[in-house]
Amino acid sequence: MQVTNDPTTSPRAQARRKILVINDSPAFLSLMREILEVEGGYDVATFDKSDGVVIGPNGGPPDLIILDIAFREGPSGLELAEQLSRAAETARVPVLFCTALREQDIDAHARDLASARNQHILYKPFDVEDVLALVAEMVGDHGRNA
Length: 146
Description:
alpha/beta; six-stranded mixed β-sheet; about 35% helix; globular
Protein backbone atom coordinates (compact mmCIF):
# COMPACT_ATOMS: atom_id res chain seq x y z
CA MET A 1 0.00 0.00 0.00
CA GLN A 2 1.33 3.39 -0.99
CA VAL A 3 0.53 6.38 1.19
CA THR A 4 0.49 9.77 -0.46
CA ASN A 5 0.26 13.16 1.10
CA ASP A 6 -2.11 14.71 -1.42
CA PRO A 7 -3.44 17.94 0.12
CA THR A 8 -6.53 17.89 -2.12
CA THR A 9 -7.73 14.63 -0.57
CA SER A 10 -7.05 15.45 3.08
CA PRO A 11 -10.08 15.85 5.36
CA ARG A 12 -9.12 19.50 5.95
CA ALA A 13 -9.04 20.24 2.20
CA GLN A 14 -12.37 18.51 1.66
CA ALA A 15 -13.93 20.61 4.43
CA ARG A 16 -12.58 23.94 3.18
CA ARG A 17 -15.18 26.65 3.33
CA LYS A 18 -16.06 28.55 0.16
CA ILE A 19 -16.11 32.34 0.18
CA LEU A 20 -17.37 34.60 -2.60
CA VAL A 21 -15.92 38.13 -2.67
CA ILE A 22 -17.80 40.72 -4.75
CA ASN A 23 -16.17 44.07 -5.40
CA ASP A 24 -15.42 46.46 -8.26
CA SER A 25 -11.75 46.88 -7.32
CA PRO A 26 -9.39 44.26 -8.80
CA ALA A 27 -6.76 45.26 -6.21
CA PHE A 28 -9.17 44.59 -3.33
CA LEU A 29 -10.23 41.27 -4.87
CA SER A 30 -6.59 40.22 -5.16
CA LEU A 31 -5.86 41.27 -1.57
CA MET A 32 -8.85 39.37 -0.19
CA ARG A 33 -7.96 36.27 -2.22
CA GLU A 34 -4.44 36.39 -0.76
CA ILE A 35 -5.66 36.87 2.81
CA LEU A 36 -8.41 34.28 2.69
CA GLU A 37 -6.65 31.56 0.69
CA VAL A 38 -3.10 31.84 2.00
CA GLU A 39 -3.69 33.00 5.56
CA GLY A 40 -7.14 31.53 6.16
CA GLY A 41 -7.12 28.33 4.13
CA TYR A 42 -10.44 29.04 2.40
CA ASP A 43 -11.51 28.40 -1.19
CA VAL A 44 -12.16 31.82 -2.69
CA ALA A 45 -14.12 32.90 -5.72
CA THR A 46 -14.09 36.54 -6.75
CA PHE A 47 -16.62 38.49 -8.76
CA ASP A 48 -15.34 41.71 -10.33
CA LYS A 49 -18.54 43.73 -10.42
CA SER A 50 -16.92 46.28 -12.73
CA ASP A 51 -16.69 43.81 -15.60
CA GLY A 52 -18.71 40.77 -14.52
CA VAL A 53 -15.78 38.34 -14.29
CA VAL A 54 -15.99 35.45 -11.83
CA ILE A 55 -12.74 33.76 -10.84
CA GLY A 56 -12.62 30.73 -8.60
CA PRO A 57 -14.35 27.55 -7.53
CA ASN A 58 -17.95 26.75 -8.36
CA GLY A 59 -20.21 24.06 -7.00
CA GLY A 60 -23.08 25.26 -4.89
CA PRO A 61 -23.57 28.33 -2.77
CA PRO A 62 -20.65 29.77 -0.84
CA ASP A 63 -20.37 29.57 2.94
CA LEU A 64 -19.89 33.35 3.12
CA ILE A 65 -20.27 36.32 0.80
CA ILE A 66 -18.08 39.38 1.25
CA LEU A 67 -19.15 42.48 -0.64
CA ASP A 68 -18.76 46.21 -0.72
CA ILE A 69 -21.61 48.54 0.11
CA ALA A 70 -20.93 51.17 -2.56
CA PHE A 71 -20.17 50.26 -6.16
CA ARG A 72 -19.40 52.64 -9.01
CA GLU A 73 -22.47 51.31 -10.82
CA GLY A 74 -25.68 49.96 -9.26
CA PRO A 75 -27.05 48.00 -7.57
CA SER A 76 -25.45 48.79 -4.24
CA GLY A 77 -24.11 46.08 -1.98
CA LEU A 78 -27.08 46.60 0.32
CA GLU A 79 -29.47 46.00 -2.59
CA LEU A 80 -27.46 42.98 -3.68
CA ALA A 81 -27.58 41.56 -0.13
CA GLU A 82 -31.35 42.02 -0.16
CA GLN A 83 -31.59 40.06 -3.42
CA LEU A 84 -29.35 37.32 -2.01
CA SER A 85 -31.49 37.07 1.14
CA ARG A 86 -34.58 36.40 -1.00
CA ALA A 87 -33.00 33.78 -3.27
CA ALA A 88 -33.53 30.22 -2.05
CA GLU A 89 -29.93 29.15 -2.73
CA THR A 90 -28.32 32.05 -0.85
CA ALA A 91 -30.95 33.05 1.73
CA ARG A 92 -28.99 31.47 4.60
CA VAL A 93 -25.53 32.50 3.42
CA PRO A 94 -23.99 35.05 5.81
CA VAL A 95 -22.85 38.37 4.35
CA LEU A 96 -19.89 40.46 5.44
CA PHE A 97 -19.83 43.99 4.09
CA CYS A 98 -16.33 45.36 3.73
CA THR A 99 -16.42 49.08 3.03
CA ALA A 100 -14.37 52.26 2.99
CA LEU A 101 -17.48 54.20 4.00
CA ARG A 102 -17.55 55.49 7.54
CA GLU A 103 -20.26 54.25 9.89
CA GLN A 104 -21.97 57.64 9.87
CA ASP A 105 -22.08 57.54 6.04
CA ILE A 106 -24.30 54.45 6.10
CA ASP A 107 -27.98 55.03 6.70
CA ALA A 108 -29.04 53.91 10.20
CA HIS A 109 -31.93 51.92 8.70
CA ALA A 110 -29.49 50.05 6.44
CA ARG A 111 -27.24 49.26 9.43
CA ASP A 112 -30.24 48.04 11.42
CA LEU A 113 -31.44 45.89 8.51
CA ALA A 114 -27.99 44.33 8.10
CA SER A 115 -27.84 43.62 11.83
CA ALA A 116 -31.31 42.04 11.79
CA ARG A 117 -30.16 39.69 9.00
CA ASN A 118 -27.04 38.81 11.01
CA GLN A 119 -24.85 40.56 8.45
CA HIS A 120 -21.70 42.30 9.62
CA ILE A 121 -19.98 45.48 8.45
CA LEU A 122 -16.19 45.70 8.49
CA TYR A 123 -14.74 49.15 7.96
CA LYS A 124 -11.51 49.76 6.04
CA PRO A 125 -8.72 49.94 6.87
CA PHE A 126 -8.85 46.64 8.69
CA ASP A 127 -6.40 44.33 10.39
CA VAL A 128 -5.85 40.97 8.63
CA GLU A 129 -6.24 39.06 11.90
CA ASP A 130 -9.56 40.80 12.55
CA VAL A 131 -10.82 39.81 9.08
CA LEU A 132 -9.77 36.20 9.58
CA ALA A 133 -11.34 36.00 13.04
CA LEU A 134 -14.63 37.50 11.83
CA VAL A 135 -14.74 35.24 8.76
CA ALA A 136 -14.04 32.16 10.90
CA GLU A 137 -16.81 33.18 13.28
CA MET A 138 -19.29 33.78 10.45
CA VAL A 139 -18.65 30.43 8.75
CA GLY A 140 -18.55 28.48 12.01
CA ASP A 141 -14.81 27.78 12.08
CA HIS A 142 -14.43 28.88 15.70
CA GLY A 143 -10.83 28.70 16.85
CA ARG A 144 -9.58 27.95 13.34
CA ASN A 145 -7.34 31.02 13.10
CA ALA A 146 -6.69 31.55 16.77
